[in-house]
């Protein structure tokens, strides 16, 4: 065979290839740089029509370079088998003088691993390695068998691994994560934040980690409401506009749907803005390029959709006016017309509440729930059917578990809306919450499924004709499952898309080696083996699907520890137990807010001059003023921050605790350990109304009823808290059962300096030793006078199912020469709120008290 190596090397890399560059999200200098690099490598660049905002003669284009899939010709390009790649593809191809796999550089958000180059440490089992490689490839990423400078993620079990040591020694710019990270990415169907999985000290392994950080996402900005609340905003002035932005309305004819019900004045305002942008108003669908309406119904909506015209709602129109740039109405869910009443599936029968979302995220979810046809409730009650939450560490989740209310993440809502049908909640994607992660980080990443919308609301004329025929004869009905089926969209938004997205249409110089990670070294045999794997991505994906079905997934090498299985079994049993008595008196409002760094970043330039130094950090508990009104919450908190009051969510960082009355919520009880000043809700009323901070002493929290009921004077408790300085439970190891709300009480124990461990009847290696009160400072020891030093505590519930856990606990205490004491949650609540160790016989549990 003739050796053509030198011949190929001498040929220009992009010879006979034609490109166009979409300037959205790219600077003018960057566009020029990309074009010059392509031409220098033998390629042709057809200019993008800035005025029209479209790609002319699309059929002649081989590659479209774009930072996003949000441009008018994206879906038509896919239909024509044209590759859409990020600008990094051009850079990397030129760097290695080889055409690389364009799929791994796709701006398609469904390929959520597109920026990932994975390498597995030596300690990862071979079966798991192949499963990870197959999954990464299927989701648009790359893998390397050897560590290199291009590696972005090193998957390892510990820092002791040789490759981890090498990465640290060479200071490689990568993230070393547990395999749990990849497993969770595949479970959720999106790339999750690596922070909780980072070695050497991953948060998911730390049972005493603090509150889950709040989430900030820009994906839903200006796309939270399908019905704008005011007139359209004006575009930015020319000197602030993007240099090469796509003009939204130039040459476009826009038609308004009758269901918009626009008054003449507002219609004239909108029309004038469209005409100022080079567009015009159409009165017939056949003459329009753009159709704007509220609902997915009516002859005009169907005709416009079937004709391939751009169809969106008024929010979408306002968005383009404000930004003077085109955007796909299906890119953001609240930009596409809503389903007509009664909504989608059985949502009309649901009453849904949300937890742990604030600001725009809360408004977005509220409107999404209503658009689906469900009833949104601002307060969470027992007649709710579902709770949408960003994580399970909230009091609403605890209440939901006790009341038997379904807990799901927001992906269930978004998938149902995108697929135009209620998605089954049995899919783990909707009930899984990655540890230490706020699901709000993924909010708004979903797009509408074009094929699903088409099938549900505007089938082609042929399909409509078939449907009419089927309604007239039972014979035709039997053919309904073989005719007119919608094709699976290229952008599939469910966890099952691994099977449909693997194949990539071949064009130009595509070859098998394109998937190989640059910089990977090894023998020719190793490269051949890698080639073989890359040519059989589907086989790898199938292996992955088998791997994740094993107990332990790709985390434990196929063998999961028995104790983990027991824990999961008991957790399932706990979910089935409803109606148990709540030890926390009330379900507090949303616990999540923005942390200090996020608040400081918001509108920093505009507010910097007016921002007062932080004078107080306040935690609010039991106050319902912002419940269901995320916008008002954001406004009020911003105003308070400007006058020096920073409203936080972390009980460890407060000097003022605000509540309408004394409540026994997690936040309130944990915050008492800080020794804060207690104020009632009128303090906030005054600060917001007068835009200044009042003297906290003028708004004291009335604790008379609480003192009468529980015998605790909170003013004395605050004094003792300042003495204790989080050391009240220092050297205490306190056990707590799952049903006694371990996830709640561990935070209260930690706030007071102790260690709380879950007791699930398993043998533990924890050493429980006697406490020496004299080792504590005098100011602390005086609050520990009733501590006997040798008592080992187990927080439990007076339930028959709990009794079986007590025997082994007593054996553990005896083993360490300690006195076992099984107590109700009242013991810890009273100790933490009084800030002193004391004892009442009524708090002790025994077999005799169960059921009485």
Structure description:
- Helix content is 34%, strand content 10%.
- With 852 residues, it is of the alpha/beta class.
- Among the domains are: 5-99, BRCT domain (Rossmann fold); 253-335, BRCT domain (Rossmann fold, 3-Layer(aba) Sandwich), CATH 3.40.50.10190; 347-443, Rossmann fold; 457-488, no CATH class; 596-702, 3-Layer(aba) Sandwich (Rossmann fold), CATH 3.40.50; 724-843, Rossmann fold, CATH 3.40.50.
- A 4-stranded parallel beta sheet has the order 2-1-3-4.
- α23 links the parallel β17 and β18.
- α5 (126-138) crosses α19, α11 crosses α13 and α11 packs antiparallel against α23 (630-642).
- The protein starts with a helix and ends in an 18-residue tail after the last helix.
What's the arrangement of secondary structure elements?
Blueprint: H1 5-10, E1 18-21, H2 28-40, E2 44-45, E3 63-65, H3 74-79, E4 83-85, H4 87-96, E5 117-120, H5 126-138, E6 142-143, E7 153-155, H6 162-169, E8 175-177, H7 179-188, E9 253-256, H8 264-276, E10 280-281, E11 290-292, H9 299-306, E12 310-312, H10 314-323, E13 351-355, H11 359-372, E14 375-376, E15 386-389, H12 395-403, E16 406-408, H13 411-419, H14 428-431, H15 450-457, H16 461-472, H17 474-477, H18 524-535, H19 537-549, H20 562-576, H21 596-601, H22 604-607, E17 616-620, H23 630-642, E18 645-648, E19 656-658, H24 666-671, E20 677-679, H25 682-690, H26 704-710, H27 714-724, E21 733-736, H28 742-751, E22 755-758, H29 778-781, E23 791-795, H30 800-803, H31 806-815, E24 819-823, H32 825-834
Parallel strand pairs: 1-2, 1-3, 3-4, 5-6, 5-7, 7-8, 9-10, 9-11, 11-12, 13-14, 13-15, 15-16, 17-18, 17-19, 19-20, 21-22, 21-23, 23-24
Helix pairs in contact: 5-19, 11-13, 11-23
């Amino acid at each position: 065979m003739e050796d053509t190596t030198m011949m190929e090397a001498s040929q220009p890399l992009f010879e006979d290839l034609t490109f166009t560059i979409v300037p959205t999200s790219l600077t003018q200098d960057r566009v020029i740089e990309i074009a010059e690099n392509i031409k220098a490598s033998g390629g042709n660049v057809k200019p993008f029509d800035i005025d029209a905002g479209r790609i002319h003669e699309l059929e002649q284009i081989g590659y479209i370079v774009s930072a996003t899939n949000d441009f008018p010709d994206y879906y038509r390009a896919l239909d024509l088998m044209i590759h859409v790649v990020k600008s990094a593809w051009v850079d990397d191809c030129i760097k290695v003088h080889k055409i690389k796999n364009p799929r791994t550089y796709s701006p398609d958000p469904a390929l959520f691993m597109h920026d990932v180059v994975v390498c597995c440490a030596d300690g990862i089992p071979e079966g798991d390695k192949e499963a990870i490689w197959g999954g990464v490839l299927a989701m648009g990423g790359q893998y390397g068998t050897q560590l290199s400078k291009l590696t972005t993620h090193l998957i390892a079990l510990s820092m002791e691994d040789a490759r981890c040591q090498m990465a640290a020694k060479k200071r490689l710019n990568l993230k070393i994560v547990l395999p749990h990270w990849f497993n969770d990415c595949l479970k959720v169907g999106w790339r999750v934040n690596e922070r909780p999985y980072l070695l050497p000290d991953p948060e998911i392994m730390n049972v005493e980690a603090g509150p889950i950080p709040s989430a900030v996402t820009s994906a839903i900005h200006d796309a939270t409401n399908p019905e704008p609340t005011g007139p359209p905003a004006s575009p930015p002035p020319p000197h602030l506009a993007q240099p090469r932005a796509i003009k939204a309305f130039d040459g476009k004819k826009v038609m308004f749907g009758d269901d918009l019900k626009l008054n003449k004045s507002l219609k004239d305002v909108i029309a004038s803005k469209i005409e100022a942008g080079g567009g015009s108003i159409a009165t017939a669908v056949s003459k329009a390029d753009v159709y704007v309406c509220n609902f997915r119904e009516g002859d005009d909506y169907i005709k416009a959709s079937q004709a391939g015209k751009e169809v969106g709602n008024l929010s979408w129109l306002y968005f383009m006016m404000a930004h003077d740039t085109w955007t796909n109405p299906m890119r953001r869910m609240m930009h596409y017309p809503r389903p007509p009443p009664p909504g989608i599936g059985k949502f009309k029968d649901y009453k849904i509440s949300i937890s742990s979302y604030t600001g725009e995220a809360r408004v977005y979810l509220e409107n999404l729930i209503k658009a689906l046809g469900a009833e949104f409730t601002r307060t969470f009650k027992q007649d709710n059917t579902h709770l949408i939450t960003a994580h399970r560490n909230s009091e609403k989740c605890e209440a939901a578990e006790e009341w038997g209310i379904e807990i799901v993440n927001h992906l269930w809502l978004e998938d149902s809306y995108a697929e135009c049908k209620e998605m089954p909640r049995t899919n783990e994607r909707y009930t899984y919450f990655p540890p230490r992660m706020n699901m709000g980080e993924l909010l708004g990443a979903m797009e509408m499924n074009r094929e699903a919308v088409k099938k549900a609301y505007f089938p082609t004329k042929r399909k409509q004709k078939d449907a009419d025929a089927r309604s007239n004869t039972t014979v035709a009905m039997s053919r309904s499952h073989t005719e007119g089926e919608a094709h699976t969209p290229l952008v599939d938004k469910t966890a099952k898309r691994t099977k449909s997205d693997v194949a990539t249409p071949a064009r130009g110089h595509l070859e098998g080696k394109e998937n190989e990670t640059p910089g990977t070294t090894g023998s020719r045999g190793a490269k051949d083996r890698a080639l073989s794997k890359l040519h059989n991505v589907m086989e790898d994906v199938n292996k992955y699907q088998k791997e994740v079905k094993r107990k332990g997934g790709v985390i434990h090498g196929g063998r999961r520890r028995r104790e983990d299985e027991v824990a999961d079994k008991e957790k399932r049993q706990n979910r089935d137990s409803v109606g148990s008595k709540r030890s926390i008196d009330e379900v507090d409002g949303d616990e999540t807010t923005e942390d200090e760094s996020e608040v400081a970043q918001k509108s920093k330039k505009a507010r910097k001059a007016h921002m007062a130094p932080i004078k107080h950090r306040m935690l609010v508990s039991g106050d319902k003023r912002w419940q269901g009104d995320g916008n008002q919450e954001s406004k009020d908190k911003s105003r308070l921050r400007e006058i020096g009051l920073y409203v936080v969510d972390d009980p460890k960082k407060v000097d003022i605790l605000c509540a309408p009355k004394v409540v026994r919520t997690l936040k309130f009880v944990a915050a008492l350990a800080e020794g804060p000043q207690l104020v009632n809700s009128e303090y906030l009323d005054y600060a917001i109304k007068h835009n200044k901070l009042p003297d906290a002493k003028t708004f004291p929290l009335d604790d008379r009823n609480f003192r009468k009921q529980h015998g605790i004077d909170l003013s004395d408790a605050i004094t003792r808290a300042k003495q204790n300085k989080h050391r009240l439970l220092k050297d205490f190891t306190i056990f707590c059962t799952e049903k006694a709300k371990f996830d709640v009480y561990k935070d209260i124990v930690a706030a007071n300096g102790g260690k709380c461990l879950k007791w699930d009847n398993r043998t533990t290696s924890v050493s429980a030793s006697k406490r020496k009160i004299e080792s504590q400072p005098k100011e602390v020891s005086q609050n520990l006078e009733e501590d006997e030093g040798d008592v080992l505590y187990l927080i439990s519930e007076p339930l028959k199912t709990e009794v079986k856990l007590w025997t082994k606990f007593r054996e553990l205490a005896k083993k360490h020469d300690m006195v076992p004491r099984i107590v109700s949650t009242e013991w810890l609540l009273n100790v933490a709120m009084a800030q002193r160790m004391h004892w009442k016989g009524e708090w002790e549990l025994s077999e005799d008290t169960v059921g009485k």
